[in-house]
Structure formats: structure tokens, C-alpha cells
Amino acid sequence: LPDGYASSLSGLRDELLLAADTVWHGRVVREGLRVALAGPPNAGKSSLLNALAKSDLAIVTDEPGTTRDVREVAIDLDGRLVLLVDMAGIRETDSKAEAEGVRRARDELTRADLVLWLSAPDAESQPDVDTPLLWRIATKSDLGPATGELSISAQTGEGMDQLVERLAHFADAAAGGSSEPALVSRERDAQALREAASALGEAEGHLASFELTAESLRRASQQLERLLGRMDAETVLDRLFLSFCIGK
User: Fold this and answer.
1) Per-residue confidence at 190, pLDDT binned at 50, 70, 90?
2) Which of 94, 52, 51, 47 is nearest to 66 (CA)?
3) pTM attached to this predicted model
């Protein structure tokens, strides 16, 4: 083998893994940063949505449980696309309609890139979600103190500039900031890169055998071709016969 062949394989494998790790940044650029506005009923989720969107998009009342469905609103924060997700307040309820709204809200929390857990003087609640990225926001500061990392009032505007600035910084970082643009934005593409890297790792371990090394390199090449959308006729026919029952 040529000098440095093993180190070249290792370097290429590391580059593929680094590219695969940018999939989250790429998805945020392509689809936007999903920010869930969560909390108990009457915590000010819809009011915050309207304030951030600068429009009366959501119905706001002092009656808990007004929001039953999930609403997405796209906004621009310093050139970054952010999807605000308003949802039902999370609590135990005997109402079937509200319970379905709570179920949908919990589903949205698993999809969110960032959860803003809202609490208010008249609607305090501990976060009841399993997510690594959660900010606790105290709303309705004009009514009194509440627990949170940041205190805001959608009515008076107190703290809103700080929240918007913090969200804009987070969205920029999630999109990759000033670093090189993400090479992939879909999980299937990232998976192809990881599998190609794995095949290259196997090739490194088989350098004593040309046949095994060549087979590992062939599998790595196939994964990269799949990433680029290149498929030979044999592969197309294999997928066709696996997916459909032909000739019966």
C-alpha cells in the first residue's frame, strides 16, 4: 500500500463523521428552529406568541384551557427562520377535547429544538417535560413575580427585547453561526455518511487483506453514491422487487 494510506483513510473517516454531525444545523437552516411555547394553562403562551409575531394571531382570554390545538407561526429573527409553536396548557384534565390538546402538546415538545416553559404569578408550575434544551420564562411580570431565568410581560413589553435577543443568538448558533455551511440537512444523508465512515473504519482494520479492504471501500463508495443520488440499475431493480409484488 502507498505510504500514508492508513492515515488518509482515518482522516477521510473523521471528515465524514464531522459532516454527519452538522445535520442538526442543516435542518435548522432548511426548516427553521422549532421553539415550543409550553407551560400550564393561562401561563401566557398565546400572548407571548402574539407579541413575538407582532400580530393578534392567537385568541387570548383569562379562561384557562382556551388553546386546544397546535399552532405554528414563522418569524424572522435577524435573518434566521424561527417556528413558534403555541399549544394547549399541560395539565391533567377530564375534558376529552383538552386532553387531546395536551397529548398533541407533549408530542410537539419531543420535536422542539428549544422549549420555553412559561410560568406566571397566577399559573405557576414546574416543568414536566423531558428535553435537554429548556428555558424557564416568568411571564406577566406586570402582575407580580414568578420563577424563571428571564422575567417578561407581553402587555408592557418588559423583558421582551432581552428574550428576542437571546432567541436570535440561539437561532444563529443552531444554524451554525459563522462556521462553514452544513453539508447535510436530512437524517438519511447523515446516516449514509456515518455508514460510509464505518466502512472506512473496517477498511483500516483489513489493510493486511486486499480483498477485505476492497470490499469495505466498495461499501463506503455505495453509501456516498446513495448520498449523491446515484444508483445503478441493479440496485433500482432490487428495491423495486422488494417493494412491490410483480408478476402475480
Assistant:
1) confident
2) 47
3) 0.67
